[in-house]
């Protein structure tokens, strides 16, 4: 019988995170203080993050040790399985071999605990008592809630209003773990009240929710801020995904030609792709790396590579990234975890270096791909993960058209068990492809900060 699952023994779980900064041909642009436009230092980040995470953010060491207490928690679900998608290959009639790394086996149902657990642990070690954060669909919020419960941290999650309304069970999961979930924009912060004063029914955005969480953390000495994507240390923590996949593909006697990941802020994409890109930068096999984003929020394919704020309230440092403008509010499509105006600076830098390519798809086509995957492989993907499924299917059909037997690897970053309302809408024909306003995009991009070249 053909092998379907490739399982690593817990003893082979990676002991280090991989830091792609060590292998870059040129370093990414500096992070700037918005007031002075000078590179920021550790002291500028200290109100938000514990020092260990700040050191990881700026490190150029290739390997950073995963603390043993963190690895012990990881053993609840890691190493995560790698699957060969035999039934999907057959359904597509493709000569391509398709593998997927499945991160939905974590307690919270996605890849997000890979960084939530270490972030919570480092904060607890530093004596922090409370964490604030933002979340879109709720994958990150539920993961940090889970991690906070393990290490005795009080967690407050600002969830984007449209997702707060769309996904009540994700909110219930956060509360089950002991966190408090607040719809954003809210009346709990000065920035939230200012947004609501302008538009009482504002659907919210990740940029707004970040501003609210940062405001609370900056004003309270016992509180720090945790971020689920975008920053270097978050992407670093996710590289355990790609490192495990490398070992599992060796077990399969295979090596990917194409690697696909969905992209919103960049964390799961970095997790699967960075170890392979690093291998290539050190003289290894050259592969195609494909980032798939939503057509309604296309930062990599339509955004401008420029310095911008990571939040809508302009409380964060300036980072150079592919951005739609910090004031851009994406439409309320169902992949809430991908509704972010900017892309991780490190992912953006790699695109500028020509090390990855980007494409965008509308949500109906992505749900269609997710349903085909579910009926072939049995797993119902999260709406975010459907973008990676769609990207992998496109590559497999290309191989069919070209008569090429390539190996495709993608990251199935989470299950969709809390997203069934979206699937119900899809089957009822109520799910439409939403487009952003070109006028709003132009206005948001016109407001980018002025930073001398």
TrEMBL record:
PROSITE patterns (alphabetical): TRP_SYNTHASE_BETA (PS00168)
Keyword annotations: Amino-acid biosynthesis, Aromatic amino acid biosynthesis, Lyase, Pyridoxal phosphate, Tryptophan biosynthesis
**Where do the Tryptophan synthase beta chain-like PALP domain residues begin and end?**
75-414
The Gene Ontology terms for molecular function here are:
L-serine hydro-lyase (adding indole, L-tryptophan-forming) activity; pyridoxal phosphate binding; tryptophan synthase activity
> Could you say which EC number(s) this protein's record lists?
4.2.1.20
Leading EC class: lyase
InterPro entries, from UniProt?
Trp_synth_b-like (IPR006316), Trp_synth_b_CS (IPR006653), Trp_synth_beta/beta-like (IPR023026), TrpB-like_PALP (IPR001926), TrpB-like_PALP_sf (IPR036052)
| Family statement | Belongs to the TrpB family.
Q: What is this protein called?
A: Tryptophan synthase beta chain
